[in-house]
Design brief:
By secondary structure, the protein is an alpha/beta fold. The protein has two domains: 39-152 and 273-300, Response regulator (Rossmann fold); 156-270 and 304-332, Response regulator (Rossmann fold), CATH 3.40.50. It is built from 13 helices and 13 strands. Strands 2-1-3-4-5-11 form a six-stranded parallel beta sheet, sandwiched between helices. A four-stranded parallel beta sheet has the order 7-6-8-9, with helices on both faces. Bound molecules: tryptophan. The site of tryptophan has 17 residues, from α2, α8 and α10.
Length: 333
């Protein structure tokens, strides 16, 4: 009797130990103490505009939600390139030379630079509209190499369908964008195809930097029934300038992102950038815990919503149909 009790006792003890050990192993994999030692994350953001700021803030918040905090268990070096190509290069090289553990690149031009600067340090891109045509990855499902990220791909077709619900008489559409942004070119190609299939004409006007925006917009408004800008960083940075010119000429201005509506564009059918920042952070956690970026599929945001600007509508004398207003997730006043 006594003996079998002892054996049972031993067995229980052994199982307990095994249980604890195996529990420990799986927990170590998930990094239960969130102890990232001396790990360093470099964040490179292209330029200061509301959408990119939202992404960065939501990324950092979500890391904190997951117990990863700058100055506590990780070091985050945030750098803004102020839209300057030379700065972009200098910052990405600095991150690589300092052997950071993860580079987070917000927007396409910075991602292209980071990807070009290293094939060893994991690069996590954020909000890149078309990672394939930008040359960031060659396969969305299996990116390979040291690169993965999130995409904010939108549909020019869906935005135009919304445009026609609000202002049905569009025949000539003015496309305003920076021709060196791969993220814009891809959406403009989509727009051209839509226009061709639907008997509309696209009139293009491109800029190379924010200082040209006012003049180029001015040259375009007299020739078109509506303006369209994709998710273009240059136009987004100068959005108030464009909307001022467009509103004065009473031309509806359709855009690619919610922040561009908030800043004065008339409407969009777009994604939520707080969610995108959060998703990017979840991928960062995977990479910090040892997963290979090249094995993590690029994440495309699929939830799209209508955003409209009521103030712009009344300034240009357009009445937004009530069914559109009802569907909108956000109406800026
Ligand atoms: N999608 C853009 C890129 O690929 C970056 C971006 C995110 C953006 N949100 C935006 C650009 C809002 C303009 C407006 O570079």
């Amino acid at each position: 009797m006594l003996k079998s009790k002892t054996i049972a006792g031993y067995l229980t003890a052994i199982f307990l130990v095994i249980g604890i050990l195996s529990g420990c192993t799986s927990k170590t994999d998930e990094n239960p103490n969130n102890n990232y030692g001396q790990k360093k994350i470099g964040i490179i953001q292209l330029v200061e505009h509301p959408s990119l700021n939202t992404i960065r803030e939501s990324f950092i918040n979500q890391l904190e939600e997951k117990g990863i905090k700058d100055g506590e268990n990780i070091a985050i070096d945030y750098q803004n390139a102020q839209g300057d190509q030379t700065n972009i290069k200098t910052i990405s090289n600095k991150f690589v030379n300092n052997k950071y553990d993860l580079i987070v690149a917000i927007a396409t031009p910075t991602a292209q630079s980071a990807v070009g600067a290293t094939d060893e340090i994991p690069v996590l891109f954020s909000a890149c509209t078309d990672p394939l045509s930008a040359g960031l990855v060659s396969d969305m499902e299996k990116p390979g190499r040291n690169v993965t990220g999130t995409s904010d791909a939108v549909s020019a077709e869906k935005i135009m369908e919304l445009a026609l619900r609000i202002t049905p008489d569009i025949k000539k559409i003015g496309a305003l964008y920076n021709s060196s942004e791969a993220n814009s070119i891809s959406v403009i190609n989509n727009l051209k195809q839509y226009a061709q299939e639907n008997g509309m004409e696209v009139i293009e006007a491109t800029v190379t930097n924010t200082s040209e925006v006012q003049q180029v917009t001015q040259s375009l408004v007299g020739k078109v029934d509506a303006l369209f800008s994709p998710i273009d960083n240059t136009i987004a940075t100068a959005l108030p300038v464009v909307s001022q010119v467009a509103n004065k000429a009473k031309v509806p201005f359709y855009v690619g992102a919610d922040s561009m509506v908030k800043d004065g564009g008339l409407a969009t059918y777009g994604i939520n950038y707080s969610v995108l920042g959060k998703e990017t952070a979840d991928m960062a956690v995977q990479i910090l815990n040892g997963e290979n970026p090249g094995d993590i599929p690029v994440k495309i945001m699929t939830d799209m919503d209508i955003y409209v600007n009521q103030k712009t509508a009344s300034e240009i004398g357009v009445e937004i149909p009530s069914d559109v207003l009802e569907e909108a997730v956000e109406i800026f006043e």
